[in-house]
Amino acid sequence: MSACRSAIPARGWARRPFARAAEPFLTTKGVGTGTGPGLSMIHGFAEPSGGRLRLRSAPGEGTSAEIWLPVAGAGLPLGEVAARPPEPPVLPAMTIQMVDDDPLVPMNGTALLEDLGHAVVEAASGAQALQVLREAAIDLMIADRAMPGMTGARLIEAVRAERPGLPVVLASGFADLPEGRLAGIVRLASLFGQDDLARALAASLDLAARLVANPGGA
């Protein structure tokens, strides 16, 4: 294994935001100050490569980040071509609603979606999301699972009752979802890159079309 290390002395993260450092969309910066690539994307690169991202931080002491990657072995024999993963689907431009109670969380998600050519409308709660959905032309919804009041799963259930054809994605996907109408929901893992996001959008469009064509199952 080989490592690349970066350190910032004399500064550090507080315990609560540091525990969420590798979550997608998380930033501690203010609006308009830029977000960089995000630790979740770095983690998403290191893990599939057989490596890992190691973070250490303490207020007043500093922060260090290490990326550990395996040393590359011999290349392919001459004439052989490595299998490439399929390209992410190219989708038509959509207006996508992102729902999360933390105002900082959607910032990176908005950047990723806009880079894919989509417009983004944000909502801070399930109730607000439903109100916006009734007033605006929303093509797809991405909802965070863990929200106070109305959770992402309950919001999606309400959305399917009002607009059964609306594609939906549940972020921070966990296994503890109610069965029934939510059994076939498209989930987005807690760590993902832009290609993963594009595939989740495509999967939700496909699932919504199948649910409309066959309301009794996906």
Reading side by side through the largest sheet, how are the strands ordered? 5-4-6-7-8
Main sheet makeup: 5 strands, parallel
What share of residues are in beta strands? 15-25%
CATH-level-4 superfamily name of the largest domain? Response regulator
Helix/strand order: EHHEEEHEHEHEEH
* CATH architectural label of the largest domain: 3-Layer(aba) Sandwich
Protein name: Response regulatory domain-containing protein
Organism: Methylobacterium platani
Keywords: Phosphoprotein
GO molecular function, one term: phosphorelay sensor kinase activity
Task: Give a description of the structure.
There is one protein chain. With 218 residues, the protein is α/β, with parallel strands linked by helices. The chain has two domains: 2-69, Histidine kinase-like ATPase, C-terminal domain (Heat Shock Protein 90, 2-Layer Sandwich); 95-213, Rossmann fold, CATH 3.40.50.2300. Helices cover 29% and strands 21% of the residues. The chain has six helices and eight strands. The chain has helices at 15-19, 39-46, 106-115, 126-135, 152-162, 194-213, and strands spanning 2-9, 52-58, 62-69, 95-99, 119-123, 140-144, 168-171, 186-188. The strands form two sheets. It has a five-stranded parallel β-sheet, sandwiched between helices. The longest helix has 20 residues, at 194-213. The model has no long low-confidence stretch (mean pLDDT 76).
